Amino acid sequence: MKIDHLILLVSSLSMLTQAADKLGFVFELVRHGARAPQKAQKDQFMVPEGMLTASGQRQRYLMGSLNKQRYIDIGLLDDTYNPAQIYIQSTNFFRTIQSSYAELIGIYPPSQKTKLNDGEKQSLKSGKGMPKLKIRNQGKTVDPGQDPMEGFQYIPVFNYQTPDESDDLMTGGCKLIDEADAYLFPRNDTYEPVADYIMPVLRKPIQVAYGLTDDQAWGLSYPQLYDYSDSQLAEDKEGIPRRYSYSAEEWFYMRNTQKWALSLTFPQEYKKIFATKIMRNPLMNMHNRMNEINDGDKTRDSLRYFIYSAHDLQIANILEWLHPVGHDFVDVTYGSSIFFELWYDTDCVNSLRDESCFKVKIIHNGMPLKLSTCLDANWYTRGSYDQICTYTDFRAHTTNFGYSGMPLHEKCAETFTPPSME
Ligand SMILES: *[C@@H]1O[C@H](CO)[C@@H](O)[C@H](O)[C@H]1NC(C)=O
């Protein structure tokens, strides 16, 4: 409750200071909602392993409702679905695709307007309005009056079904980092920097919670611990009573185990490549939108809301790669999000028509992120305490931290060499 109030307060304060500004473009990177565990015990779930649960679906639906208020009700997007304005790409998993649809139902809720009228229903029933297909038991199968999707807006969610180098969301779109991840993820030594302090805290609780023998408990590896913590967190989200009465410290590390399993598997250079690839299309579209606004913003039919529906993996690595000032995270919870919002001053655009009129606000789970490049430039060159990035500084930051070697498709085509064999 307290947290809700705080978020409301913070967002209404920022609305006040942004009153003269207008929102031009949004990039949303978001994790799927709550799901069943990937491995370990899953007997308590009504969906198969790794699948989105009903509460997970609800999480993203509610997020969509909030995004409708934030982005449609203020006029960034049209009230009714305009396919030119929104692009949503998901990874090729049922939980991320279903999450995308759930969020879209929140953004464009079912309406009376799109319901079929009686004449249209009759035309479908009689077969006249149907595509030229043979349908068995047509009278029974086709009953437009009973369509549970009636009133819903159909919106495509794009995803690559097989690994493809233009798929920037999945590691499979970059052979080099995919191989590095496959090699590093299952290895004990990948987690050496944290296993020494996390394992001793969690070994006993996990043993009791999951009924492990002493041998199993002593033989527990970090990748196994991660599986148990994944299962325990999934159960917790569904309101299933905890298997053990964890202390605050134990629960902290139960959550924190995830962060290292996601980020230590992408050492410095690989994180750069992965993050640069994830960000390139959204950033290019943000830039195009800025040019379009400076050019007089002549059409409503252009892309202004770009959504990547992904996993904890992408969020954790983008967060670490951004190096936000004074901002840490314990884990990447279900439905976690990072928003990159492009704002502009309309008076400035009308007179100057250039990049200096634009700012970028970055928000992680409702918390504003600060970037060193922006803070430094605001203070040292403009004498301002402003914590929001100018568009130019934001670009400088992502370029400085980004991968800048050979073209990405060439880099990604390289073969991974394990460190010990170099
Ligand atoms: C990983 O660590 C566990 C527990 O210490 C051990 O049993 C296992 O053999 C290790 N695996 C490798 C490949 O070293």
Automatic annotation (TrEMBL):
Q: Which SUPFAM superfamilies match?
A: Phosphoglycerate mutase-like
Q: Which InterPro entries match?
A: Acid_Pase_AS, His_Pase_clade-2, His_PPase_superfam, Histidine_acid_phosphatase
Instruction: Show which residues constitute the signal peptide.
Output: 1-19
- Molecular function via GO: phosphatase activity
Question: Which keywords does this chain's UniProt record carry?
Answer: Hydrolase, Signal
Region described as Disordered: 115-146
Q: What is this protein called?
A: Major acid phosphatase map (Histidine-acid phosphatase)
**Gene that specifies this protein:** Contig17120.g18239
